[in-house]
Design brief:
The protein has 434 residues and is an alpha+beta fold. It has three helices and 27 strands. It has four domains: 105 residues, Immunoglobulin-like (Sandwich), CATH 2.60.40.10; 115 residues, Immunoglobulins (Immunoglobulin-like, Sandwich); 96 residues, Immunoglobulin-like (Sandwich), CATH 2.60.40.10; 43 residues. The strands form seven sheets. Strands 19, 20, 21, 23 and 25 form a five-stranded antiparallel sheet that branches. Strands 1-2-6-4 form a four-stranded antiparallel sheet, with no helix packed on it. Strands 5-3-7-8 form a four-stranded antiparallel sheet, with no helix packed on it. This is S-layer protein.
Length: 434
């Protein structure tokens, strides 16, 4: 019997195939786990946005205003916020935690925690733990620093005020993004007490703008802004966004300014207007015929509560030419009115209406409003041909009569009326009476 030679390549193929049978299911299982983990990535950002008083005082109660934000892409269910207070802080068990059933992506929740500072607490920074738990999972801890004590330097009498607040745009539309500018000023003036001049510098430890409504403040809090001399100002920008579907109205953002101590802190409401109205196009006059063309006049009115810029009016009808192709207005204040005039090269297939697009910017946000306007003009009624010819004949007769009058005056020194009387008497002489 002749033995067939052993094939090493076939044995290697079988070994590789067996290995792949083991690796492929494991690889698929790994990919499934990875995809399910990345499908929704919840994440929580916990921030202390206010402390009153600042710094906390030994033997007194203070309040923490805590914000929890879902910075992930999925909904977080049953999230619990809790303050873990260690010496020198204490908190009652009934006030130490707060649970929220649903925290959707991009949304925030707020809660107040009231803590007590031991009367023997040392002055200076102390650690405080805030932790959260999602649906019974492990606690995730974030540490914060709380300052205790601190004597206010009464010689340093700088006084912070909010000297100005502006927004760009002036009034927001749903879906807009913009900037709120807050200008802080040290309103103090140097004062002389005997041989001593009181210091008037103002120290800014932190400034934060936050929202408890639908509006979203996207800028983080600002820390360690330094010292402002008496009479000086500092402008601070904060970015905000208005979600789509936000209702019209006035919303309040909260501005917290932490000065050199709690006596010099500021907490104020900042008004933000949301107005969904924009530009309206209104027919100014009935469309008119100008030869074979149609002339259309349209009033463009800014119904928005704020200034808008870059306003351009563009009429559109398929297959129809407008002159000019677009009408540029530029900047429009609230209730401004401009009249745009267009000439249309008439087309037999043209419909009754045209779409008028008003394109403009509210702040840096591009918007477009549309309106349907009647553009088809009715030609004026034509004069009957017999009336035209009759009028021409009448004019010719008047000309002939005037010409005859002057001719008779010149040749026979008699007017047309007298000449006609003579002719009448000659043809129809009066009968003599007996």
């Amino acid at each position: 019997m002749i033995q067939k030679p052993h094939s090493s390549s076939g044995q290697e193929f079988l070994t590789t195939f067996k290995t792949l049978k083991i690796l492929i299911p494991a690889l698929l299982l790994f990919l499934i786990l990875i995809s399910s983990a990345s499908a929704a990535v919840p994440g929580v950002k916990v921030t202390v946005i206010d402390q009153v008083p600042y710094p906390a005082q030994p033997g007194q109660q203070f309040r923490l205003w805590v914000q929890a934000e879902n910075v992930g892409s999925g909904t977080i269910n049953n999230i619990t916020l809790q303050v873990k207070a260690d010496y020198p802080f204490s908190i009652s068990s009934g006030n130490s935690s707060k649970t929220y059933s649903d925290l959707y992506a991009g949304t925030k929740v707020y809660n107040e925690f009231f803590l007590y500072v031991d009367e023997n607490a040392t002055k200076g920074p102390h650690n405080l733990s805030l932790r959260y738990q999602v649906d019974g999972s492990n606690w995730i801890v974030t540490n914060f620093t709380v300052y205790v004590g601190g004597i206010v330097n009464m010689d340093n009498q700088g006084t912070l005020i909010i000297s100005n607040v502006t927004s760009s745009p002036e009034a927001f539309m749903p879906g807009d993004e913009g900037i709120i500018w807050v200008t802080l000023k040290n309103n103090a003036t140097p004062q002389q007490t005997g041989n001593k001049t009181n210091l008037t510098n103002a120290r800014i430890q932190s400034v934060d703008l936050y929202s408890s409504d639908a509006l979203v403040v996207t800028s983080p809090a600002l820390y360690d802004l330094g010292i402002i001399a008496a009479g000086d100002t500092i402008p601070l920008p904060f970015k905000i966004s208005i979600p789509e579907g936000t209702k019209d109205g006035t919303y309040l953002l909260t501005l917290n300014v932490t000065g050199s101590s709690y006596e010099y802190n500021i907490k104020r409401n900042i008004e933000i207007k949301v107005d969904s109205t924009g530009i309206k196009a209104i027919p100014s006059k009935e469309p008119k015929m100008n030869g074979t063309d149609i002339v259309v006049e349209i009033d463009i009115v800014n119904y928005h509560q704020g200034l808008i810029r870059g306003v351009t009016v563009v009429p559109e009808v398929e297959g129809v030419e407008f002159y000019p192709a677009e009408y540029f207005i530029g900047e429009m204040k609230p209730n401004d009115l401009y009249t745009a005039k267009f000439t249309i090269k008439q087309d037999k297939t043209m419909g009754e209406t045209a779409t008028i697009k008003s394109v403009y910017y509210n702040g840096d946000n591009l918007h477009e409003d549309e309106a349907d306007i009647k553009v088809n003009a009715t030609a004026p009624p034509s004069t009957p041909s017999w009336l035209k010819y009759g009028a021409i004949l009448l004019v010719l007769m008047v000309i002939v009569l005037i010409g005859a009058h002057f001719y008779l005056k010149k040749t026979k020194d008699i007017g047309l009326t007298d000449y006609l009387k003579e002719q009448k008497n000659a043809r129809f002489p009066k009968k003599k009476e007996n």
